[in-house]
Amino acid sequence: MVPPPSGSDSEHQREAGPTPTEAQLTAGLKRLASGGGKTGWHLGSRFRNAFLTGLVIVGPVTITLWLMWGVIHWIDAWIKPLLPASFNPDNYLPFPVPGFGLVIAVFGLTLIGALAANLLGRALVSSGELMMSRTPIVRNVYGALKQIFESVISTTGTNQSFQKVGMIEFPSKEIWSLVFVTGETTGEIKDVKPGGADDLLTVFMPTGIVPPTGFICFVSRSNVVFLNMTVEEAAKIILSGGIVMPDTEQEKLKRLAEAAQKKKSRFKIGSDKPAA
User: Fold this and answer.
1) Residue 198: CB partners within 8 Å, gap ≥ 6?
2) Number of Cβ within a 10 Å radius of residue 231
3) Cα dihedral 37, 43, 46, 51 sign
4) In total, how many domains does the chain have?
5) Is residue 222 part of a domain?
């Protein structure tokens, strides 16, 4: 029989320290004691981050779809009552067809544009414009709206000067504002040569997050700092109040390289086979 350990042996074990199991248990208790009050905070921060991530993903999509749906219903409510009853599909189906008025509007505008290209169409358009221009109050509204529509349509053409973004010192020195360069200044303003400058550009500077409103400025070309960003990227900066800033070309290439590297690494990890 093995004799029981003497008192000196047990005292020797206590002096040598706790066993591995006791050491692990002690370390676990210390971790629980040190982080016991922070577990709730970690769960709260994770819930908040997950909620904000979902809001960023779902919010823009939901608002965009809601706006598109509202525009479609507005066009349908305006176009469908003008259609004959025999051509309205809502009279044959138990539910309304959304977007049918939008299709009819697009087809009608295309047909009007095609008819205006021939001689008869140009004559009708000229007669209508002549009648509008002779009406005292209507001619001012019609002329202003026509110039706005022509300016907007011209930005989609081949003239790239209507699609440039720049910066000017406004409203004072060393304060820079984003502007959209709409073209070269012509007419009486160019002939007057304000400030002695004969090379003027017409720029539009939107005011904050309300893009339709802004200032029309005639600036010397040398006072405009042109940027490489697109009109859409500049509009994002203005609409977000400067929160969203577009990446430079170097940053875009870096992002693409990092994405390609991650995709390559995932492919390598997925293609590895466990050893036999």
Assistant:
1) 190
2) 14
3) negative
4) 2
5) yes
Same domain? For 210 and 165 the reply is: yes
pTM: 0.47
CB distance 155 to 163 below 8 Å? yes
Asked if residue 56 lies in contact with residue 80, where contact means CB atoms within 8 angstroms, the answer is: no
Alpha-helical regions (H) of 134-248: 138-154, 188-192, 231-239
Per residue in 217-230, pLDDT (tens digit) is: 898 898 999 998 88
Residue 76 lies in a domain: no
| Same domain as 231, residue 195 | yes
68-96 average pLDDT score: 87
Beta bridge partners, 219, equal 201
Q: Which domain holds residue 195?
A: 160-247
Q: What is the dihedral of CA 120, 124, 125, 130, to 10 degrees?
A: 140
Residue listed under structure tokens 């440039």 = 164
Per-residue tokens: 99: 């977007």
Q: Both 190 and 232 in a single domain?
A: yes
Considering the domain boundaries, does residue 143 fall inside one? yes
